[in-house]
Amino acid sequence: MRSLLRTPSAAVLAAAWLLAGAAPARAADDVAALRTAALAATCASCHGTAGRAVDRSVVPGLAGMPRDRFIAQMKDFRGENTRKATVMHQLAKGYSEAQIEQLAAYFAAQKP
Amino acid sequence: MIDSERSLSSAARRQWLRGAGAAGLAGIAGAPLLAGCASAAALPGRTRVLVVGGGYGGATAAKYVRLFSGGRIDVVLVEPNEAFVSCPASNLVLGGSRTIADMTTPYDTLAGRHGVRLARDTVAAIDAAKKTATLASGATIAWDKLILSPGIELMWDSIGGLKDANASGRILQAWKAGPETVALRRQLEAMPDGGTFAITIPEAPYRCPPGPYERACQVAAYFKAQKPRSKVLILDANPDVTSKGPLFKKVWAESYPGMVEYRGQHKATAVDAKANTVKFEVQEDVKADVLNVLPTMRAGAIAVQTGLANMNARWCGVNYQTFESAVAKDIHVLGDSIQIAPGMPKSGHMANNHAKVAAAAVVAQLAGWEVNPAPMLTNTCYSFVDAKRVIHVASVHEYVAAEKTFKTVAGSGGVSAGPTELEGEYAWNWARTIWADALG
């Protein structure tokens, strides 16, 4: 099974959990990884689990998207000169800049 | 209220960590999990997480507890149906551009790829104090966390005569997609040109706010192509269209002129199946050739029976941070069964998002971690106004700890400018993707 918790900053949650009495710092990483994975899961309904698009998808997959590209696109969707879109300009405005940074790092670390 | 930041006792946490470490992919007390062989194996006597209901909420929750825990938390999913049949998009079956098979996804990937144990059964009783569930087959399963996603119960008795009229197959609901969807399509096919289809809508809240209006469009699209002298009547208990109102009204006026008629303030009270007539609280009776009567709805029967429907005896109050029941510890309720916060529709997309917040909370709580103080939800509801063109409503919701509720993020969300075929492509893509996200 592929873990959803692959991030650049934290080891896979699962690995840490196997160590009974994991160090507190490691546990904090795991907590953060879980929260990031849960945030990214709000994108999955339309873009696929962990950002992996379904076959013949007409919306782009997000897994493996370079971090800067993700951030630039979200900024375009959120900007005053809103990028022409059907839905994303409305959804992108629901996420803070910090959340967009988190999502960008998460998706960049996912295998496409 | 339950304290959502409650941790497991230190003893329980040690036991959990030891169990996870010692048993690897097995739960601490469960039998080893054999992915792909779940259907052949006997059900375990206990499980860390028991999910009840395999719809948009429950299937997603089962999968995401497995994913978020790296396969360390064992999950049993109880669902009576052989396969998942989507309500969203199923109005296309009535319009004739899709079949019920197009709406259907098997459950086996949840077992084969994700190690969820499937029990094709229903839950007959839940003991919240003993933390057990008894299945209709007689088996009892003990759980540490119960995730309940039972959908809605149609309150037949809210409309006189409807229960018998439905049981006889005369007046259908087709609000739970499946055989009734196909049967309603057959009634429409059998109706002569020049006939009338009437749909009655209960007072909000009900499952899928735009669904009845989308259904009216789909039936009108079929009539326009095949039975152009026919009529579609929308009889709404609400004062006005409850979702995407201006968009739907524009479609009815421009695409189906003289065919679709909307009447607000029509609260159905009784049906006469022999006369094909609906009676209303105030307004005149309405007779139609094909009647589609949607009664008042409430949380799924098992939630009501367990005493979880604490809001007007209809909906289940939850702690929105975790979706834990307001009245029962360690029972999390998802989807259409919950008492919604303002702006949170009862939709499949919402249930899918509830499930992810709940799954992350359950994993955190079982690990003894603080739960996420700021969970997020999104919603996108697409409606097909004919076989190809679609309109949507979308929103983003953030948990506001100070008010203990979800609020729509200021400036986010909105609706389509108008129906387009491009959104039609996105809508079908949405359906394929969210089915895969929940079940694949």
Task: Provide structural commentary.
The complex is a heterodimer of chains A (112) and B (440). By secondary structure, chain A is an all-alpha fold. Chain A has a single domain, classed as Cytochrome Bc1 Complex, Chain D, domain 2 (Orthogonal Bundle), CATH 1.10.760.10. Helix content of chain A is 52%, strand content 0%. Chain A has five helices and no strands. In chain A, helix 2 (24-47) crosses helix 5 (97-108) and helix 3 runs antiparallel to helix 5. The longest helix of chain A has 24 residues, at 24-47. The radius of gyration of chain A is 15 Å and the shape is globular. With 440 residues, chain B is α/β, with parallel strands linked by helices. Chain B folds into two domains: 10-153 and 298-372, FAD/NAD(P)-binding domain; 156-295, FAD/NAD(P)-binding domain, CATH 3.50.50. Chain B has eleven helices and 24 strands. Chain B has helices at 10-23, 56-68, 91-95, 108-112, 162-167, 179-190, 211-226, 245-255, 301-305, 348-367, 421-439, and strands at 46-52, 75-78, 83-85, 104-106, 117-119, 123-127, 132-135, 140-148, 152-154, 196-201, 231-236, 260-263, 268-272, 277-280, 286-287, 290-293, 297-299, 318-319, 324-325, 331-333, 376-384, 390-400, 405-408, 414-415. In chain B, the strands form seven sheets. In chain B, strands 1, 2, 5, 6, 7, 8 and 20 form a seven-stranded mixed beta sheet that branches. A four-stranded parallel beta sheet of chain B has the order 12-11-10-16, covered by helices on one side. In chain B, a hairpin with a 4-residue loop joins strand 13 and strand 14 (277-280). In chain B, helix 2 (56-68) packs across helix 11. The longest helix of chain B is centred in the last third of the chain and has 20 residues, at 348-367. Residues 1-40 of chain B have low confidence and may be disordered. Chains A and B meet through helix 1, helix 2 and helix 4 of A and helix 1, helix 2, helix 10, strand 21 and strand 22 of B.
